[in-house]
Amino acid sequence: MPLQARARALPRWLPIAIALAVILAGAVLEVAWGQTQPGVETLSPDERAIMERNPERWRRMSPEERQRAVERYRQWRALPPEERRASPTAEPPAAPTAARMTIPTEAAAWPGFVAELKLAPMAAQLAAQTELKSIDGNVLTLALPATHKHLADKVYADKLKLALDQATGRKWMLAFEVGSPAEASLAAQKSRAQAAEKSRVEAAFRDEPFVQDVLSRFDAKIRPDSIKPLG
User: Fold this and answer.
1) Spatial distance between the Cα atoms of 217 and 200, rounded to a whole number of angstroms
2) What are the extents of the domains in the chain?
3) DSSP 8-state secondary structure symbol assigned to residue 11
């Protein structure tokens, strides 16, 4: 078939369908970009260009931090040219660095320090079960009960080390005394608090006049594990 005849044989709707597909693809890409980079829809072209040069920084910023960064940039843009040249360009800054934490030197302060760390679940369990024993230079020695020795696995220990490095701005080496009691650990602290609360609830239940009456009438006994706090 001649080329001209074959061209005439193409359906009339085919070019329209191709054009529509291209338009839709562009729309999908635009939506995807807006979803992965929240807040860009409110930016001007020059503001968006700056953001696109720093996409990771923009992504890590909270909505409030983005708003403040954009406002500072707009204030800078509103300055006369000579003042702008004398001032640093107000591009959106990197996400603010969290305040450095200091590892406590007292075992009693270790649970509170551990509770503030951002840890993966298993690394959080490891940290919660440990008690601070000593700090010698960059070597941090932690006690770990034998019942939880599996938490000292290198994978979990490395995650805890990384969190400590990032939180304090220092490089640490972790040493575990497996089998040592860890009465000053976060887990032990929580366990004691739960036991104390349980005892308080049980005592309050026993002191109820109705409960006292039932116990005396029927020579009954209370099963402690049956007492549950309301709510």
Assistant:
1) 24
2) 15-86, 110-183, 187-226
3) -
Using the 8-state DSSP alphabet, how is residue 148 labeled? G
Indicate the helix (H) or strand (E) that contains 13. helix 13-36
Task: Return the SS3 of 175.
Answer: strand
CA 39/CA 37 separation, integer angstroms: 7
Q: Does domain 110-183 have CATH number 3.30.750.24?
A: no
Residue 37: both structure tokens together: 């980079």
Do 182 and 143 touch, CB atoms closer than 8 A? yes
Summarised one tens digit per residue, pLDDT across range 194-228 is 878 877 877 777 777 877 777 677 776 777 666 66
Q: What is the pTM of this model?
A: 0.50
Q: Supply 201's token pair.
A: 């609830």
Indicate the helix (H) or strand (E) that contains 206. helix 186-206
Take residue 209 and report the two structure tokens written for it: 């006049």
Q: Please say whether the dihedral angle defined by the alpha carbons of residues 124, 125, 131 and 133, taken in this order, is positive or negative.
A: negative
Read off the DSSP letter of residue 179. Answer: T
Task: Look up residue 160 and give its two tokens.
Answer: 């805890």
What amino acid is encoded at 91 in this protein?
E
CA 177 to chain centre: 29
